[in-house]
Amino acid sequence: MKGSKGSGARWVKGAVFAALSMVSSHSWAGIYDDGKVFLTGGVFTVDGGGGGGAVPWATITGYETRDGINGGAGFTYVSLPNYTLNFLGASVGFFDRFELSYMNTKLSTNLGNVDTVALAASLLNLDKNLGLDPNGSNLHMETYGAKIRLFGDAVYTSDSFLPQTAIGAYYKVNSTKEFVTTLSADKAKDYEIYAAFTKVFFRYSTLVNLTVRYTSANQIGLTGFGSCEANHTNCNNDKEFRMEFSTAYLLQKNFAIGGEWQQHGNQQKHRPVDTGDLLSTTSANGATDLVHGVVGNVVGGVIGATALSQSLTQNESDWYDVFFAYAPNKNYSLVFAYLFLGDIAVAHEQNGLYFALHATF
Amino acid sequence: MKSFTRNLMVGAALSMAALASAPSFAGESKTSPILGITSSSLEEFGGPDGVRAWVESLFYYIMLDNRIAPIFREFGNVERQTFLNTQLEIMVLGGPNEYQGASMSAAHADLGITMPQFNAVVEAAYNACERNVIPYHTCNQLINALAPFTRDIVTR
Ligand code: HEM
Q1: Residues A148, A151, A154, A155, CA torsion sign
Q2: Closest-lying ligand 1 atom to the alpha carbon of residue B28
Q3: Which CATH superfamily is domain A2-275+312-360 in?
Q4: A91 vs A59, A74, A310, CA distance in Å?
Q5: How far apart are CA A133 and CA A117, in angstroms?
Q6: Measured between alpha carbons, how far is A166 from A179 in angstroms, rounded to an integer?
Q7: pTM of the predicted model, to two decimals?
Q8: DSSP A54
Q9: Which of A181, A337, B17, B133 lies 20 to 30 A from A244 at CA?
Q10: Does ligand 1 lie within 6 Å of residue B11's CB atom?
Q11: In terms of CATH, what superfamily is B25-153?
Q12: Does the pLDDT of residue B134 top 80, yes or no?
């Protein structure tokens, strides 16, 4: 019955038709493509690449298929009790195979204890630059990312357990080196690499993703990489493998709810904020510096009364979040999430709201 | 137009054959999704009649989509394809295998179908589910069962 097919002319016609239908709808560039199914490129992660909120997936960002290019820009706002974070970035997916991303992150602190240290340091005219501002200190980081899909298909191969598998890397440059050093981190810039495995189980309308990241980041790099003891000694920046898991349940073709877990290290645990001699009562020089002069007395009094140096002990927790993602159409998606970020640096129980807007072209 | 009449006649002949007796051949077999599909899927689609209605809606949305309608207008035959797709979808949803058309690879081999075009048909499929008030999660059972055909259908 199919014998009448297969003539070369017919094939050519089919191809021309296919090409025409692509070019006619987007005559400015045949390479532009938004043919991917809703939300299957993932949304906008805090690292810039395609994935959930914090966890990069094996899916390639944007709505392109293997025939084209697509990408977008995004903004994420996070409000925690003691921190506010702003993320602004962009990402491009090429042929559903390769992805490039950039993210600019700013974290503003609202920490009485750190502000006090900053105030003391400025009053004392401390030589050492702690990178702190008495009016609230900021951390700033830029993240450059690339990801390549190796094999497997998250969406279409519903008859195989083989997940879509990708590897990726981030290079993170924290430009607030002094602050990061004050928080006892070893380095302000470093790379991370990861492997991600993603599968959509249509029977349960559920996406499951597992990611393994090789990194030494503290708080995804916002508070630097690795850690040191006081005065930047005995530094250690050993990378380790950390697990990340994320799942999304599709309530509608363009609406998903889900949750994530991201394992974190705890290299800055119990490391005091490294203020050099400022808070040290054991160091002979520092102590005498502090108790001399009116300013020193006042500051010393405040520090003693508020047990400031104890309150500046750091801790880090794994991150958890629950989210819902909504893509009204292929040009933008919205994510609302509640984050359970635990202890961040010297502040405890940082739970709060997350909002992300991702515009795709 | 010649191929249109040809298809129409073959379609009519097939319809009669289907009414008359058990299938003499089946060009395609059921897919095997890893986690299976919900056993009540066919029922949730409204049984064979529900599937037929869904396929009608599917082609309605396909023919409204400029990205793919030209292909169907040029090379397809909506009547014949509606008939054959109904059989195929009943089969993949767990019903009897009465499919009488060509294999997915034979039927689509010469069409040079791309991923965006395939996805456009998937969008039409979801729209058809919404139009026929078939719940999204039931619709996903069908997507689950048809997805593996991508390999045979998308040749570019
Ligand atoms: C899972 C998705 C699909 C299924 C289950 C499917 C199913 C079928 C069936 C059952 C036939 C009839 C075969 C026969 O004539 O014996 C057919 C033919 C056809 N299909 Fe599909 N199809 C799918 C995707 C597509 C796509 C994405 C396109 C184009 C964008 C397409 C275009 C056609 C055309 C033009 C024909 C007619 C071919 C001819 O009669 O020569 N199909 N398809």
Answers
A1: positive
A2: 10
A3: monomeric porin ompg (2.40.160.40)
A4: 13, 8, 42
A5: 9
A6: 34
A7: 0.83
A8: S
A9: A181
A10: no
A11: Globins (1.10.490.10)
A12: yes
